[in-house]
Amino acid sequence: MSNITLCWELGGGYGHLAGFQILAHKLTQRKHTVNALLRETTRAADFFKLDTLKIEAAPFFRSSKKYSSPTISYADIIQRLGYQSINTLLPLVKHWRKKFIDHKTELVIADYSPTALLAARTLGIPATDYGAGFFSPPAVYPLPTLTPWLRSEAGFLEYIENQVLVVINEVLRHYSKAELSYLYELFEIEENFLCTFPELDHYSDRSTGTYWGPEFSNDVGITARWPKNNKKNIFAYLHRSYPFLDELLLSFGKIEENILVHCVGLPSEKIKKYTFNNVIFCKDPVKMKSLAGKADFVISHSGHGSTAACLLMSIPQLLLPTQLEQMTLANKLKQSKLCETISIQDKTPNYVGLIKSTIQNTEIKKQVKLFANHYCNFDQQKQIEKIVLCCEKILAK
Fold it and tell me: How large is the C-alpha radius of gyration of the chain?
């Protein structure tokens, strides 16, 4: 069969691993050779059967520079991550090219991996995009702002995109390939697996593209368990990098409900400080499907996969975004009354009050139930089967 390379270059969190997990399994079942180039490999064993595919660290740009201004568009993001000059981008492209050549790659499947797409273009390797809307901008110029709540200088979106385009075209000329007229042409590839729903698409005004439904892993981790009593069950999926983690975890002791916490990166020695009669910590990820019918409420940082999974299970959520992708999604869902949020700009949030009020919010419960009913026929297994068949058609050309 064929050599397929899964690529994850930018971003962080379990979501990228979880999204690839079920796809990699199906591809290896169909006897394809699958290699995975991953930005983070330390938890790969939790998601993949390592005896069926080869995992390596993905090339990505390491920057120590600190920026005071927020990023406002896709072009702005990637310019800070290697696309500022030919001197930074060309070595990165060469690294990706070497990986593809070494693996005899016949198809690239890219999750938030613009440089993998660029390298594939220079080698003439078929490529697909695979992931949430944030990672696949719409075909417009300039690429839309991702922060409509912020004011940017007139012409800035065009200016930053033009700068990035100049650098990309320098790389393409280096390999004697056709230049791009617009940045969105980088994503004009064999197929764009837009793994989301319109309600969860970070770009609200997308005029073209097919929505394949969200990608997430339902079956990785341990089963969620709470004490058997008459209290509501809350699941908190958190990360130690959250700036107000201490205040949040301490607030859990002031809430009467049962709370199960999985906090990525929280040292074991710190757990005792936040353990109360109603609070249980689990070290391992939790199977999303085990929340169905058991969890009354979820608190998380608005990762696309986990947020989508909770909506499909009709579970209300309080979202605590920490970066641009999460903020964009959380703000969009809040506008549709599908969640409550706490802004990273809020330095003194009333966690106890917001958790209690959101649990009791009948409008959010109503809208979440309507969402779940609307997509009740979504079948992730069928989704993945269709994606794999599409990949095989591309390989057969």
Answer: 21
Tell me the pTM.
0.94
d(CA 183, CA 349): 39
* In the chain, where the domains are located: 3-213+379-396, 233-374
Rounded CA-CA distance 137/126 in Å is 19
- Per-residue pLDDT tens for 181-223? 999 999 999 999 999 999 999 998 888 889 999 998 888 889 9
CA distance 79 to 384: 32
Topology adopted by domain 233-374: Rossmann fold (3.40.50)
Q: What is the DSSP string of 54-118?
A: EEEEPP--------SSPP-SHHHHHHTTT-S-HHHHHHHHHHHHHHHHHTT-SEEEEES-HHHHH
pLDDT confidence bin for 68, thresholds 50/70/90: low
The C-alpha angle with vertex 53 and arms to 266 and 307, in degrees rounded to 5, equals 45
Interacting residues of 276 by C-beta distance below 8 A, sequence separation 6+:
252, 253
Judge contact between 7 and 109, C-beta under 8 A. yes
- As a whole number of angstroms, the distance between CA 115 and CA 133 comes to 17
CATH class of 3-213+379-396: alpha beta
In the numeric block, the tokens 């075209």 are attached to: 169
pLDDT tens digit string along 96-111?
Answer: 999 999 999 999 999 9
HSE, side-chain direction, 13 A CA sphere, residue 329: 28
